Amino acid sequence: MKRSWNPRLWWGFVLALAAIVSYPLFFARYPITRDFPWVTLLLLAIAFFLLATGIARAFQRPDAYRGKVAGSILGVLTVSLVGFFLTEIFYVARQIPASHGAPKVGELAPDFTLPDSQDNAVTLSVLLNSPFAPNGLAAPAAASGKTAGAILIFYRGYW
């Protein structure tokens, strides 16, 4: 009897890789799948099921299915990759310190001076009190009576 290919082994491995790669490329963009990676965990559970049944099939019926060696290698590799992924998601990502001193939404920002892209000093209070000039035109801005605004973006980090 000719031994047939064991697709569950390979589909399980490919699905595990796809789940791990899809989290940072796609699922981390949305809060519903970023805060708790339930879709990724569901895909990993399906991948483990396929891989485990493929390995069981290879060892229970070696005369009919291939995959004893490849299944063992893919199983160890998949468990290692998933273990690394889960450690990064559930342990390392939670080690970022809390931002106790960061401004809250709606809180007034303190006045500050920073260099712009041409190394000119820009002060927040001067920027907020300057007239609004669409497309850099000063004449229509003075006539409209609107003042400029500022968008502040804060990045957390260790610098």
Radius of gyration (Å): 28 Å
Count of domain modules: 2
Q: Main β-sheet: number of strands, strand sense, barrel status?
A: 2 strands, antiparallel
Q: Going across the major beta sheet, what is the strand order?
A: 1-2
Integer average pLDDT: 83
Structural class: mainly alpha
State the low-pLDDT regions, or none.
Answer: none
- The first-to-last residue Cα distance is 65 Å
Question: Mind sketching the topology for me?
Answer:
Blueprint lengths: L6 H19 L5 H4 L3 H23 L7 H25 L20 E3 L5 E3 H6 L9 H6 L15
Antiparallel strand pairs: 1-2
Word description of this protein:
By secondary structure, the protein is mainly alpha-helical. The protein has two domains: 89 residues; 59 residues, no CATH class. The protein is built from six helices and two strands. Strands 1-2 form a two-stranded antiparallel ribbon. A hairpin with a 5-residue loop joins β1 and β2. α1 runs antiparallel to α3, α1 runs parallel beside α4 and α3 runs antiparallel to α4. The longest helix is centred in the middle third of the chain and has 25 residues. It is rod-shaped. The mean pLDDT is 83.
Quick synopsis:
This protein has helices spanning 7-25, 31-34, 38-60, 68-92, 124-129, 139-144; strands spanning 113-115, 121-123. By secondary structure, the protein is mainly α.
Features:
single chain, 159 residues, mainly alpha, 2 domains, two-stranded antiparallel ribbon, 2 strands, 52% helix, 4% strand
